[in-house]
Design brief:
Elements: E1 2-5, E2 15-25, E3 28-39, E4 43-47, H1 54-61, E5 68-74, E6 83-88, H2 102-110, H3 121-132, H4 149-160, E7 167-171, H5 179-196, E8 199-203, H6 210-213, E9 216-220, E10 224-228, H7 230-234, H8 237-245
Parallel strand pairs: 4-8, 4-9, 6-7, 7-8
Antiparallel strand pairs: 1-6, 2-3, 2-5, 9-10
Length: 250
């Protein structure tokens, strides 16, 4: 899924900047005074207990949630254009008996031609190019319902990378993926952000990969409680207080 975000100013740097952002739903304050700055090429992990506002922050960036404050994205030399956002939602569920293939899914998202009519040679070539970015060309004819958790994440990632975004947002991409698949997926994300110099913002409840891959870790509990390297955040008193108070719930 790919969405637009209005360009903003950040000197000569490529970045997503969130300033003094607050979100209220009715009388309930979901987010308060969020300030976050992400440069191109950075991988930033959002962590926190359930109800901390992580998904609400993503919805706000995607333009799906009203808010107070400022959200801007700037790309040097492209300030008059809208930045592109690639979005991978939490893994959707598919009927295991569904006959829809990976190629059918791509065709539905990328073409006005009804999927039941099949793909043209040009469309199939384009789908293969998209899958090549995540080294999953072999999945093109596999049924969606038969994909493993890791395979489904790679397919959704390939969709989010077409067209290539300026920032890639992932909501719990490691959910439902086995340990070996987690490392494969994180290596792939690391390669993608370096190859295309794009930012990655991801929600995760798996902390084991953060030290190796994340440039920034942001601990949230309706506001930003702690922000820094994985070691700085995971070893902090704020981390212990947040998760102890929530009974360890993530």
């Amino acid at each position: 899924m790919n969405m637009g975000l209005h360009g903003g100013s950040c000197g000569h740097a490529c970045c997503l900047r969130i300033q003094d952002l607050s979100v209220k739903i009715g009388n309930d304050t979901i987010l308060q005074d969020i300030n976050l700055h992400i440069h191109c090429g950075e991988m930033v992990a959002l962590i926190g207990p359930n109800g901390a506002g992580k998904s609400t922050l993503i919805k706000t960036i995607l333009g799906q949630q009203p808010y107070e404050g400022i959200v801007t994205f700037s790309v040097p030399g492209q300030r008059s254009r809208k930045a592109k956002i690639g979005y991978v939602p939490q893994s959707p569920t598919f009927d295991i008996g569904d006959s829809v293939s990976v190629a059918d899914l791509f065709a539905c998202c990328m073409s006005r031609r009804p999927a039941f009519l099949g793909q043209s040679a040009a469309m199939r070539e384009k789908i293969m190019e998209c899958l090549e970015r995540v080294r999953s060309e072999n999945l093109i004819d596999k049924r969606i319902g038969a994909l493993s958790g890791g395979e489904l994440q790679r397919v959704l990632l390939a969709l989010a990378l077409e067209p290539l975004p300026n920032i890639l947002i992932l909501d719990e991409p490691l959910s439902g993926v086995d340990v070996e698949g987690m490392e494969t997926l994180m290596d792939m994300l690391d390669e993608i952000r370096k190859t295309y110099d794009l930012s990655i913002l991801m929600i995760t409840h798996d902390f084991s990969m953060l030290a190796r891959y994340a440039d920034q870790v942001v601990l949230m509990d309706r506001q930003i409680v702690r922000q820094g390297s994985a070691a700085d955040v995971l070893e902090s008193e704020e981390f212990r207080q947040v998760f102890h108070r929530k009974g360890g719930t993530q």
